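Continuing the batch. This is chain 6 of the set; chains 1 through 5 are on the previous pages. Same settings as before, nothing changed between runs. Recording input and output for traceability.
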Amino acid sequence: LFFVNFTRAWFLFNLSSGINAEWPLRPGENKWAHAGAGALAGMSEHCVMYPFDFVKTRMMSIYTPPEVRYRSMMGTFRSIRSQEGLLKFFRGIGVVFAGSGPAHALYFTTYEYNKSLLGSDNPVGHLLAGVSASLVHDMTMTPIDAVKQRMQKYKSQYRNLRHCAGEMLRTEGIGSFYRSFGAQIAMNAPQQAIHFMLYEQLKRRLNPSNEYSPGIHFCCGAIAGGAAAWFTTPFDVCKTLLNTQPTVDEKGRQVIRGIRNASRTIYEREGLAGFMRGSIPRSIYVMPSTGICWAVYEGFKSVLVKW
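Output for chain 6:
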């Protein structure tokens, strides 16, 4: 799985950033530093914060029995810990560890390349570079998220990651890995546009010298990521529904397909409030995640660009 995603990331990186083209680098900068720093940042972010992602998925899923409906973040933590054990919070982490490295290498390299073309001090350039980074990142991470969320759902029938991916392919076809791709793009394109633009503006104000400062990078990333995540929660709820739904529902109807049908289902079952299910754990998860990601990325980049 790691090899497949690394190959996909490598292909998309060459396609999107024109690796043989001239990159407008700063003196002494190594263009591969962005890929290396991005891979390390992505693995750090996803693995450290994985238990919160697990809780977020459980709270956003609408296909759970009434007796285990999760009402609050702390209540969800306590329920999972007491009924399923502490190790349950890490179920599915292997596929994230394997996929997040290549995906974030692609993500940050695409962003840095397009930012350099559009202008490093241009807020609109930051926005557009963020959207482009999101598009190529999601082509790699969408199947990873599909497997991960199947493993995270309540009473998942899959024994391990290999069994989950194999059963999805055998019973639902290759399309099941990209069922939530539309919702993923609808969520991440505006989220990353807001995230990158806000991060760059905060960094310019708080760190005008652009020297590496882990505290400033963490705070800027946390604020930018948390704000962007809160505004795009409804799309994440739709994505979670598309990834975790059973093959047929309790009435024997076929699975929901597409963000429009997912939105209609959520509204019919939960009302407007259903679109903000899990918004608090999502923000709590994303804020330190993006803070860690930027602090690690900027740190490794400051070292690797000189190699």
